[in-house]
Amino acid sequence: GMEKLVVCPYKRPNALCRLICFPWAGGGTSQLAAWGKLFSSSIEVSSVRLPGRESRLKEPFAKDMTTIVNEITSVLLKELQEKPFAFFGHSFGSYISFAVALHLKEKYGLEPIHLFVSGAHAPNSEAFLPIKNIPLCDAEDEDIITHIQLLGGTPSEFLQYEDVKKHLIHTFREDIRVLQTFSFEKAERNIPFSCDITCFNGSEDKPHDLEAWHDLTSGDTSFYDLPGGHFYLLEPSNAIFLTKHITRCIENAGL
User: Fold this and answer.
1) Which one of 41, 61, 112, 253 is separated from 143 by 20 to 30 angstroms, measured CA to CA?
2) Is the pLDDT of residue 153 over 70?
3) Is 118 annotated as catalytic?
4) 30 catalytic, yes or no?
């Protein structure tokens, strides 16, 4: 289960904390798993690999968010009970990281020491609702490609190969379908988390409702705009800022 679900090229068995990364819609593990080399020896970085891509290409895509959350939780539970952990998610990955964190808290009383979210509305925000209405069944492949290109982050040479393009469209479609099965209703006085939450966003990306993340934790919430569009985090200078900032937050958590 572990080898299939989690990619960790820079293993650090003596690390004080694990940082688990959750990729964007249509994405794989290579970019975020490679962050491992940018972190100090106190943090071990891994990236979650969902079914239907990379070495899990032959597996059917997950049908809903609950299936993804259950798989990730069951595979990682033992590890997460052993030592402190933090989550980083970008876009679609932010919602998965939130859903997994919520499940861990509600079912096992486990919580990340820090939740880092990027390029995503707070799941309790009105701004999240339109995502549920993206008409996927009727969307033409070309419309999906246009959307993917608007977001940026996919090298244009990928889109020149028909089979790569087809697979990307299919993966993106399935990931958005999963996202549409996710909903979070915040109960009146219930604040789900007590960990700090940091929200990152690209300055040229469309604005996200980040303020509503405040209502999801009794810890601190902070916000950073970094230069670039939706995939600002793929810029090497931004990756360096992110990894330094995340390291500082984790080290300040008093492990």
Assistant:
1) 61
2) no
3) no
4) no
Give the least confident one: 66-70, 85-89, 131-135, 246-250: 131-135
Q: Which pLDDT belongs to residue 137?
A: 67
Who wins on pLDDT, 167 or 223? 223
**Three-class HEC string of 126-166:** HHHHHHHHCCCCCCCHHHHHHHHHHHCCCCHHHHHCHHHHH
* Pairwise CA distance, residues 224 & 202, whole Å: 9
Q: Which of 16-30, 97-111, 151-165, 240-254 comes out lowest in average pLDDT?
A: 151-165
- Cβ contacts of 132-137, under 8 Å, gap ≥ 24: 132/180, 132/183, 134/176, 134/180, 136/173, 136/176, 136/177, 136/180
* DSSP assignment letter at 217: B
Select which of 90, 114, 208, 230 is catalytic. Answer: 230
250 has pLDDT over 80: yes
**Total structural domains within the chain:** 1
Q: Residue 73 sits in which domain range?
A: 2-253
Query: Tokens 């993966």 map to which residue?
Result: 171
pTM of the model as a whole: 0.94
DSSP per-residue letters across 164-201: HHHHHHHHHHHHHHHHHT------TT---B-SEEEEEE
Question: Percent of the chain having pLDDT more than 90?
Answer: 71
Catalytic-labelled residue, pool 46, 47, 91, 97: 91
d(CA 184, CA 61): 22
**CATH number for 70:** 3.40.50.1820
Q: Which of 148, 176, 147, 139 is nearest to 64 (CA)?
A: 176
